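Running this now, will post back.
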Amino acid sequence: MRRPPLIDGLQYDRWSEKIFRQLREGGVDALHVTIAYHETFRELAANIAAWNHWFERYPDLIFQGFSADDVERAQESGRTAIFFGAQNPSIIEDEIGLVPVLHRLGLRFMQLSYNNQSLLATGCYEAEDAGLTRMGREVIAEMNRVGMVVDVSHSAERSTLEAIEHSTRPIAITHANPASWHPARRNKSERVLRALAESGGVLGFSAYPHHLKNGSACSLDEFCAMIAHTAELMGVERLALGTDLCQDQPDSVVEWMRSGRWTKRIDYGEGSAAAPGFPEMPAWFRDNRDFGNIAAGLRKVGMVEGEVAAILGGNWLRFFASSFGPASAL
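Update: finished.
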């Protein structure tokens, strides 16, 4: 029998042969990778070209994924399926017609906003949350039609709740944790988590230190106990991992993530002026070879093997199967 899949719902590493080999050492079957933050459509195309180069150079390690069937293909061939996503709708500029174009190029996730107000929705760092815009409602409908996942990881509360309500297909929070556990602006309220679960969506737990209680010092026991508590709120079938690993990235990249082109000064976002740059990852999750630590931690807090397997990949696989195709095929 094939082993349960291992799927990470979000990473933005400085990609290299070393990391691709670590993915294989860690047994990662599928990975949602960020290929855009503040890019335009043309800049996104250049990023896709870079990924095409990696697919050609390392065909024994990685390939581009388009459907849930590619996770099975990855397991059979001993490779990792790479699924594209964007953390900001800047890539569609103000043209809804680019949604199906990007889907054909392999984009399977798109966030409605990245911290700031976008043309679609409000980000979690804005003082006022106006909810979905007129364009936001239209773009969600188009994403639903073609099979592109609505991601609200960085969206503000009202915008997130309206997206859950407006979308005709379940949506995702690919990388965040409960705000009741750690009150980071990016983490989500119990109201949001309940609405997400009731609508059939999925939450990917983040291992990024700014999303963790005690930051880099957060223990594995604390992290896994938080997951177990969230399972009581949402149900195990709605939980997954979205580690938000940013391995080997220089600090200039986190400045790009936070500041983009919208400000002339460095915006430290969830960090602080005293500690700019990327925080140190917790000791139990340094790279893609460490998923076994999380699996062991989940068992330690009382989860049975089927629950562990669901959180480590089974729930994402089911979500992929129902989300990546056109609505007419359902």
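Residues 295 and 308 are 6 Å apart (CA to CA). More later if anyone needs it.
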